Amino acid sequence: MAAEVAVVIGSGSIGVAIGRTTGVGRKVVLADYSEETMKAAAVQLRGEGYEVTTHAIDISNHDAVAALADTAASLGDVTRVVLAAGVSPVQATTERVLHVDLLGTAYVLEEFGRVIAPGGSGIVISSMAGHMGEGYPRDVEHALAYTPTAELLDLPFLASDKVGDSGAAYTLAKRGNALRVQAAAIAWGGRGARINSLSPGIISTPLAQDEMSGPFAEGYRTMIRTSAAGRMGTPAEVAATAAFLLGPEGAFITGSDLLMDGGVIAAMRAGQL
Predict the structure, then answer these.
(1) How many beta carbons lie within 10 A of that of residue 260, not counting itself?
(2) Cα three-residue angle 122-220-33, rounded to 5 degrees
(3) Which of 7, 115, 163, 251 has minimal CB crowding within 10 Å?
(4) Is 27 one of the catalytic residues?
(5) Which residues neighbour 119 within 8 Å (Cβ) at sequence distance 6 or greater?
(6) pLDDT of residue 257
(7) 27, 33, 50, 174: which one is catalytic?
(8) 174 is annotated as an active-site residue
(9) What CATH number should be reported for the domain whose range is 4-202+234-267?
């Protein structure tokens, strides 16, 4: 019987936490743009008994994503795919956010959709940002969902001068993630597999701590204070929810996005923010 493989793209706090749950009994392929972060995470996981190989990647490069999918498939049956990589509007320009968070996600959905094993499942870690605001016109959302990946960034409304600043790009990209996951569920289902997205709110990670010291710090603090939970979430909580979506308990769920934000969006829609 072929070995099972779990691919974890993104070796930050959330990716590693999910890797711990989904990597049990599987070969773990850990991929990241930062080789330093990836290697440190791999050492930690190996010390905990996981079989880990590493693969440096920029998910905004189609050939690199295709190579990662092929490498993973050569190791066994790819039964779990976790995409927890991305950049934040504090870190990146509008163009970089669109290339990594939107286009990179589309590449991963496409390339792993051709190698995912029957009975396999995947999850994209998106963001509550995709639930903010009034949404987008129907034609825009349809284009975000179904435009061929190679043509995605050629959409007129995705031109940098149309999108706006990196924050607007991030919100648009995260809404696009949920839409493309829903669309990809058809192709993944054709292989007997499932794909979902998970949209966390403010999770206590080094990235969140960086944002809490940036220009939007007071806004984040206000969201935390106003939310029903009144606190940040933890990577362990995200991993537990991801385990449900990836595992047999979530077998009837595909093409869905789960908002996990402690009530921030609820507060926004109630006019409290």
Answers:
(1) 17
(2) 40
(3) 251
(4) no
(5) 79, 192, 193
(6) 98
(7) 174
(8) yes
(9) 3.40.50.720
